[in-house]
């Protein structure tokens, strides 16, 4: 499984830490304390790289270059597993609304029908996707 690592700069502020990745433009986050900022950095990096791949753009190179730091700034290597992020994003459950007659809804509820399971099975069957 491919692991990608980028350097992150953690900038101390009055309210916690701001985080940015010099090699990944636009990938920024923050946290209330260092531990929270680190968790957020891992999450935002994974999601940002997922978005880049989803747009069929090349992933940025990890150069290891560090900009000039201010006093109190910390540099940390942050790693993500893009395949795990992709699997999580593409297999997450999402809500969708459907419209059916009231009498059908009442009958389905009386029978204890699981709408989500039935709809998922029906869509898979319609599209010819094996379960």
Describe, in plain words, how this protein is organized in 3D.
There is one protein chain. With 131 residues, this protein is an alpha+beta fold. It is built from four helices and four strands, in the order E-E-E-H-E-H-H-H. It has a four-stranded antiparallel sheet with strand order 3-2-1-4.
Any key phrases for this structure?
alpha+beta, 131 residues, four-stranded antiparallel beta sheet
> Helices and strands: which structural class?
alpha+beta
Low-confidence stretches: none
As a percent range, the share of helical residues equals 40-55%
Shape: elongated
| Number of extended strands | 4
Terminus-to-terminus distance: 25 Å
Largest β sheet strand count, sense and barrel closure: 4 strands, antiparallel
Order of helices and strands: EEEHEHHH
The averaged pLDDT comes out at 93
Neighbour order of strands in the largest sheet: 3-2-1-4
What is the radius of gyration? 22 Å
Which percent band covers the strand fraction? Answer: 15-25%
What's the number of helices? 4
